[in-house]
Amino acid sequence: MTDIRERYGDWAIVAGSAIGLGKAFCEELARHGMNLVMVDNNDEKLSEVSATLERAYHIKTIPVYQDLFQEDSVGQIMKVIKNLEVRLLLYVAAYSKIKKFENFSTSDFDHFIHINVSTPLKLVQAFSQRLIEKKLSGGILLMSSLAGLLGMQYIVPYAASKAFTWNLAESLNHEFKPYGIDVMTCIAGATATEAYLITNPQYGIINPQVQQPEEVAKKTLRKLGKQSIYMPGFSNRFNYFILTRILPRKWASSIANKTMSKMYAKNVVN
């Protein structure tokens, strides 16, 4: 495998880097010797992870306390990297809540739109424009989810936003090839992050393959530059094949939503 630092240079920016998958991606990049611009709205965790990575891997980090919900978040991030040759962008941040659709608030919807759709769209454009203007090759990794492959109850806005993400990445992968910019989405399944575990999923007879964040990060970065869509975990790929290539969509949707009902119906009674 070509070392990711050889391919994308000395600096990477990770949006959503303080916990979970974002933290795991930061550690994997640091392990390869890459310096990090680490963006998150959890100031305490961000400072802690930043200091830990600097000590452990002797790299440089720039912690950027930024709420990606804010309208000016992209502009603030681009100011930070103005004088750095950053050629790799990872957008890992996501807004996610489990509720019945009628119980979501207008504020919830605004957060889904800004954090999962609007901000990554604007940041990818600003970042790619910068690479193109400077005639630099680079890479962009966007985190999606198996939830975005079929319409899923109880996570309706999240599932819809993640369908947007993988379509965005697949489209841009073709458009940016002439510029030497690799674009890929990671369609992750159940991953043992804080955000997933706190939902307290109730499994039935069939349990999903719950992966570790470190495993997802390591495997995903190996695939960047080789394909536009990557789904870590054999079980996830097998289930995807059955649900999308073998079964009629109506049946696949029914199975997926019955699984969601078993996992979360008790959590969304009110």
Total beta strand runs: 7
Give me the number of helical elements: 10
Strands in their spatial order, largest beta sheet? 3-2-1-4-5-6-7
- Helix percent reads 40-55%
Major sheet details: 7 strands, parallel
Terminal-residue CA separation: 50 Å
Radius of gyration: 18 Å
Query: What structural class do the secondary elements suggest?
Result: alpha/beta
Overall pLDDT level: 87
Count up the domains.
1
- Which sequence of SSEs, written as H and E, runs from N to C? HEHEHEHEHEHEHHEHH
Q: Would you give the CATH topology? A: Rossmann fold
Query: Which residue ranges are poorly predicted, with pLDDT under 50 across at least 5 consecutive positions?
Result: none
What CATH architecture do you see? 3-Layer(aba) Sandwich
CATH class: Alpha Beta
Name of the CATH superfamily: NAD(P)-binding Rossmann-like Domain
- Percentage of residues in DSSP E strands: 5-15%
Shape: globular
